[in-house]
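Quiz preparation item.
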């Protein structure tokens, strides 16, 4: 009685068919997961930059701004004090960051932590979105 080691062609084809089906189901879910993760990551980065700007305004007792880079929030933003860049962030290419008021170029934090201009930003990537809001009192939501 001889025993052959290995797989038959039928077993290999069935395994490949099952793997293809699983990949076909899993890849779209993974793409959605990645888009959600990108949006969450960039929302957190914007929140952290705004909180940093607010705390620097209070600490320095000075006006601190968060400004868009190259006239577009999607290109990134910089936290500035008197023209000096304290912190800068550049998002991925496939992220759209849009303020409700499209004319908003700066968010200014006053020495008491409040802001001159409340704003809501929408961060979008591949159909997934999240909002970050700044109240006039300087709260980041």
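Solution:
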């Amino acid at each position: 009685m001889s025993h052959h080691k290995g797989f038959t062609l039928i077993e290999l084809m069935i395994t490949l068919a099952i793997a293809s089906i699983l990949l076909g189901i899993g890849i779209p879910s993974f793409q959605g997961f990645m888009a959600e993760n990108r949006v969450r990551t960039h929302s957190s980065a914007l929140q952290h930059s705004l909180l940093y700007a607010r705390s620097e305004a209070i600490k320095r007792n000075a006006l601190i701004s968060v400004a868009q880079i190259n006239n577009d929030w999607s290109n990134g933003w910089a936290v500035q004090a008197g023209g000096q860049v304290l912190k800068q962030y550049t998002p991925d290419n496939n992220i759209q960051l849009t303020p409700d008021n499209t004319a908003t170029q700066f968010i200014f934090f006053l020495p008491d932590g409040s802001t001159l201009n409340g704003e809501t930003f929408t961060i979008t990537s591949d159909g997934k979105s999240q909002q970050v809001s700044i109240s006039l009192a300087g709260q980041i939501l």
